[in-house]
TrEMBL record:
Cited InterPro entries: Ergot_Alk_Oxidoreductase, NAD(P)-bd_dom, NAD(P)-bd_dom_sf
Source species, domain of life: Archaea
Source organism per UniProt: Haloarcula rubra
UniProt domain NAD(P)-binding: residue ranges: 9-178
Name by which UniProt lists this protein: SDR family oxidoreductase
Amino acid sequence: MTETVLVTGATGTVGSALRAELVDYDAVVRATAQSPPGDGPADEWVTFDFEKPETWGAALAAVDALFLLRPPEASRVGRLREFVDAAARVGVERCTVLSVLGADRNPLLPHRRVERHVAASGLDWTFLRPSFFTQNLTEVHGESLRAGEIAVPAGDGETSFVDARDVGAVAARTLTDPGHAGTACDLTGPEALTYSEVAAVASDVLGYPVEYTDPSLPRFVVGELRHGRPLGYALVMSGLYTTARLGLAGRVTDDVGRVLGRDPRDVRTFFEDYAGELGQD
Ligand SMILES: NC(=O)c1ccc[n+]([C@@H]2O[C@H](COP(=O)([O-])OP(=O)(O)OC[C@H]3O[C@@H](n4cnc5c(N)ncnc54)[C@H](OP(=O)(O)O)[C@@H]3O)[C@@H](O)[C@H]2O)c1
């Protein structure tokens, strides 16, 4: 029987990739957004806001499987817990949670608190714990990359970049195949690279020089503020890049390959696929 999959964060990086993947499955895709764009792969768009419980009923009606993310903008774990309870109450069967690599080792992390609540909710759960998305290089750092610079304070630390399209592909599999219930997937790319190595790959593929400048933390924060990013965001990013600088972001797993039966995309493939967006004027 065709199942209905509810995709929260459907306009976001992973949600968009997931919708594109679900086209190949026998599933009705209900996509949520605060202001539905109504385009791209999805059978139905619904207006939805975690902070507005009055929007939850229409989103959850007759849903079999739920893709749950914690929006970076919304920090209230309590609301997500209530939403999970509502999903369990109306008979949703499966829930794939977009978490973050290392969540299992950090009980205070909001993602881990959401995971634990989902595990206790009665829903069949799968946790996806991705490393740093390769897409951050275009979505967050695209402007400076096009100007020939990667300016993040990660030192010589390695990062096991994972392509968000692979995260979307794993999500699609786990949402439609009950065989993944009760499992957690640590999602990384096939290799861990320093940002100097990323800059070298970018230069090679894009055809213009890209330099890794490794700014100090204060300089990075000031740069982010100049780009109009909020202080809280700049501090969170500083924390993430410090994790990389300390050598804690380089763990490589084969979970993408295990679930999908193919290799994860590497950073070179990412630049080849996104070269059109990263061309210099
Ligand atoms: N970036 C990384 O490298 C990385 C790595 C590992 C894990 N993660 C985790 O991945 C998650 C983010 O995923 P992403 O990058 O795919 O998202 P994203 O591109 O940042 O997009 C955020 C999504 O959340 C939705 N959203 C925002 N506020 C909302 C609200 N109040 N109610 C309902 N939806 C709301 C947005 O939709 P509308 O505004 O259109 O409604 C949008 O679709 C975070 O939990 C992050 O910690 C990120």
